[in-house]
């Protein structure tokens, strides 16, 4: 943390083809290529995303409560095989956006897996569930495979937030990231209290120093 | 407007490599850099030289590719690249020798697609209910989940290249063939299946190769040959992680400042090295550079990826050192800007950077050892269980094979056969019981043989290191000339690919009985095949792992004989397909048997009839199993009296370090045999001396620990002959230290 100027590490996890890359693209560059003629022509409207190998990284500054937070966003590969490597990406993350595809039921099972993994390894990482491709289910309810209420129930147990986003329309994406930044700023642990952190650590580590402090 | 009609909407033109240039320049600017001027500077003389090199490929190879290398530096003419790559990858040979047929496999895949409800020309992953498909009764050749992944990725691979781009004319076929390539590979190697990242490599090959089948075999070569990416895409992705660790060590030595800088930022190398390595730099924006990197990669193998990575870091180092802002550093590494990685800029640095193979190999060994060093685990214990540990790393069940026992590997079993038969021989038991053991041992070998049938072509079978090591004395080519009927002999894969489930083999466990043997690196004492058959004599070379013993001897064996030599945990084997002359067998058995009696070592022999009743599909015919000692003595016997037809000078010589007293005794027995003092022998010695020196100065001031040595021996993840050679060299180094 000391040198790098990224305050808030955010990691995106989820099944492959679940829309993680386009979510990040949308947020960072505000593009789903809707204004490019070529893009309009294509039936799927997302031809330039490539499968993520390892992970992609992007950073963005965001202003919350008159404080500027630099977010470093890790967009990880969804392929199950890359799971072994995912640790290096979510290590030390303050927030994790666990993505699932609203049109793919199995992707939510995968999301649950990631949640478990995070809970096990990163206790300070706040979890945000993001159901992607909302635009597909918005018009055609029959395509929805993941029920909203079951997700919220699940999230309640976890104390996680749920967003249903669409990278195509931009639905809820800014809100999602804003919420992450807001929670980060609100969290007293992160609140410009850098010197406090080592102090508390020292206190617990060495009772001797605790004596001194008293 | 006329021209525009030929391009998809929004595309201005295609550049010389086929990537789309868009009207809207701000759009996708990071994807590809398009060189403005078209360079076509291949002079006629240059072209001629290239053609000469390519047409006379065998000569190019025997010259050590030096001519090729110098030409490569000047650039490859695009028109000849396809041929060059095919030659380098040896895909023709693969295609001819493999039993796997591309076209029939495509038909299989198509049938599956019909069942699933899509077609390769109309890949709509969203239209299929994959869960239903997965649960269906039909057994698919390729699991539907794999098909789904491929389907999903085909759409996204090189989305701005004319061959794969939505809306371009060729794209329909291009994508379909990309799909076929990947799906057929998943069929070819179900263990690996499909992994993200493969599609880029497949796409690149399709761009270069006109024929889809050629592209497929090139891909197989790239993915399977130890020289290239074997193990890169397997389930655990272990090799890429190890390579990242190797690279970490490499930059600690080469670019210490940068390594410190990374460490201070707590930035893991894997974060940016993964896309570089796994996609073989296809993510770089300058396609000229990518092609040149590939040329070099196909020539030199995996070392090139380190070379390029070092070069890139070296170029960007100054800039990266100035900042600790991840938001500035990472994008530069993940998407190196065109001005950094354009061909004029980067390639000279790549050529100047040298990364030696042995360097990578030794680092790899150290990394492998360190990764085993879990805190709280005692070194002492590890040394004791060296032999067992090697197998843990080796675990790589293929084709549904399951591990039955972890601790008793095939090697230990085979070894224990020898050992126990040895003991039995001491007790004066009959050969009959040993015959049974031999059968069991043979069965073990066959078990190993059967699974990888599709891959058991000569090129892909992990070549036994010893044969390459000592090839000089016995050039393969000459052997092939003399014994053409053996050329296509399906040399069995070495056992060290992994432990296997040998159901019937009930070998007495060695545990606790012989601490001496368990200490040694059993696992790497894989069964070595001698490739150098001649009809009349089969000579077998095998450098003993322990103590740099190279043993060369000749036996008057006809084709059809299999010999295991297994004393001191070492194996020597000769395999051939046809049955030997029974008379000769008898004689040899008599000779070896006598040696057995004299020496208390085991000999077991199988006859043709035995074999038939055992296993019908058995491809290895009668075998003689003997320990090292009995082999040696067998020759002595053969030399002296039993087989008068053998001339004394057919025994070429024995060279090994008289490390153990037993060896010295053997050496004394062989006093009349001249030590190996051939040019090849000298070359090996001088080479190892060189390596000792550089390894010492470069890496470590302390001698290698025994555990390190065994790790080296047992790097089965990378069964490349080059790597396996390393232990020999290092061992010499080690010995020097211990003597001091």
Automatic annotation (TrEMBL), chain A:
SUPFAM superfamilies: P-loop containing nucleoside triphosphate hydrolases. This is Ras-related protein Rab-24. One of its GO terms (biological process) is protein transport. It catalyses: GTP + H2O = GDP + phosphate + H(+). It comes from Patiria miniata (Bat star). It is an enzyme of class 3 (hydrolase). It comes from the Eukaryota. Pfam families: Ras. Keywords: Autophagy, Cytoplasm, Cytoplasmic vesicle, Cytoskeleton, GTP-binding, Hydrolase, Lipoprotein, Magnesium, Membrane, Metal-binding, Nucleotide-binding, Phosphoprotein, Prenylation, Protein transport, Transport. Its EC number is 3.6.5.2. Coiled coil: none annotated.
Automatic annotation (TrEMBL), chain B:
Residues 374-522, 701-724 are annotated as: Disordered. GO terms for molecular function: GTPase activator activity; small GTPase binding. Residues 75-301 form the Rab-GAP TBC domain. PANTHER family: GTPASE ACTIVATING PROTEIN AND CENTROSOME-ASSOCIATED, ISOFORM B, RAB GTPASE-ACTIVATING PROTEIN 1-LIKE. Residues 383-401 have a biased composition (Basic and acidic residues). It comes from the Eukaryota. This is Rab-GAP TBC domain-containing protein. Residues 418-436, 464-478, 496-507, 701-720 have a biased composition (Polar residues).
